[in-house]
Amino acid sequence: RESQVELREHIDSLATELCRINEDQKVALDLDPYVKKLLNARRRVVLVNNILQNAQERLRRLNHSVAKETVRRKALLEAAGGYPHGLTGK
Q1: CB 15, CB 35: distance < 8 Å
Q2: pTM score, whole prediction
Q3: How many domains is the chain built from?
Q4: Contact 4, 52 (CB under 8 A)
Q5: In this entry, which stretches build a coiled coil (predicted)?
Q6: Assigned domain for 89 exists
Q7: Which residue has the higher pLDDT, 74 or 4?
Q8: Which residues span the domain enclosing 44?
Q9: Residues in Cβ contact with 70 at an 8 Å cutoff, skipping those fewer than 6 apart
Q10: At what angle do helices 32-79 and 2-24 cross, to 10 degrees?
């Protein structure tokens, strides 16, 4: 996610710099297509970042559910008189 944020910041910086260069040029260069490409790349980076954040949140919730279920099952085994033969409880 950090690299996605860095990439987005670099793209923003490049787009701003291209706009500034275009304004400073005496001969008008058409940099708009490049700025549009950068903005499109930025949009894709933001989309990937959102996907990664959602996946990370789902993994966090799944990990929490697994830990909760593990505690529940361990308590059931202990309440039933210990662990089955050959298991140590680790």
Answers
A1: yes
A2: 0.56
A3: 1
A4: yes
A5: 38-72
A6: no
A7: 74
A8: 1-79
A9: none
A10: 170
